[in-house]
Amino acid sequence: MHIDSLNNSVICHQCGLLVDVPLLQDGSSANCPRCAKVLTKRHRNATDHVLYFSISALLCLLYSVGFGFLEMSVQGQVRQITLMESVTTLFSLQEMALGTLMTVIIVGLPAIYVSLLIYLVGSIKLKRVSRHSIDILTVVGYVRFWNMCEIFFLGILVSMVKIAGLAHIEIGESFWAYAFFNFFLFAAIMHFDKVQLARAIRELTWERERPRQDSTNEASRVG
Ligand SMILES: [Zn+2]
Fold first, then answer.
1. What is the dihedral of CA 102, 103, 107, 110, to 10 degrees?
2. 13 CA → ligand 1 middle, Å
3. CA atoms of 148 and 150, how far apart (whole Å)
4. Quick one: which of 58, 65, 24, 64 has its CA closest to 42?
5. Please, are residues 184 and 57 in contact by the beta-carbon 8 Å criterion?
6. 19-64, pLDDT tens digit by residue?
7. CA of 36 to the centre of ligand 1 (A)
8. How many Cβ atoms are within 10 Å of 102's Cβ, its own excluded?
9. Residue 219 has what pLDDT?
10. Which of 24, 28, 97, 195 has most Cβ atoms within 10 angstroms of its Cβ?
11. Nearest Cα residue to 12 out of 43, 41, 33
């Protein structure tokens, strides 16, 4: 979906039709008249929900880095691994490219994504949007596309099922923190709507610049 920053129009990602989206009531959505795809949905208290879920996600992500992730024991030998050890092990094996990619996927992009969400939604809530807010919203859309931490977590779950037959596995605090991080991130994304946030940013920008425009018009009338 592409946001036209001047009009409340959205290009349908599925069929390419340009649709003029009206102001929506809480809980309602707008569909494409040609292919019926949902173009935008106005969630109740969306900014509050995105903000609280994003802050919770970031706290869980930070917590997950500092503690034991999994503990495996085979024939009396116990080995505990942390989330970051899954990456540093790759570096110690000289797998630099893979290690860097894993760092970006596990911690880098998710941290950037939730931080940008907190900044963006926080600035809307405090009515302190800037001329760069729409750019940040666009970046959030791109980062979301490349954010694959939930796929990483699913991969871990599948691996655990396979390893369970060979070793005894104990789940650490970090594992639960990373699971909750994924849950809160998913909840934030479910309440995030690019079109509605773009509209809120435009309205706040217009409100902020209106007194300046009024005084300019007044000055030109007097002059
Ligand atoms: Zn369509």
1. -60
2. 7
3. 5
4. 24
5. yes
6. 998 888 888 999 999 999 999 999 888 899 999 999 999 999 999 9
7. 6
8. 20
9. 67
10. 195
11. 33
What token pair was written down for 171?
A: 């789940």
Amino acid in position 109: L
Query: How do 77-82 and 68-74 pair as beta strands?
Result: antiparallel
Stretch (H or E) spanning 172? none
Distance (Å) from CA 30 to ligand 1 centroid: 11
Identify the residue with better confidence: 106 or 223.
106
Residue 188 has pLDDT above 90, yes or no: yes
Whole-angstrom distance between the N-terminal and C-terminal Cα of the chain? 45
CA atoms of 161 and 63, how far apart (whole Å) = 24
Spell out the domains of the chain, with CATH numbers in brackets: 1-42 (no CATH), 45-206 (1.20.140)
CA 9 – ligand 1 centroid, Å: 13
How far, in Å, is the centroid of ligand 1 from the Cα of 18? 8
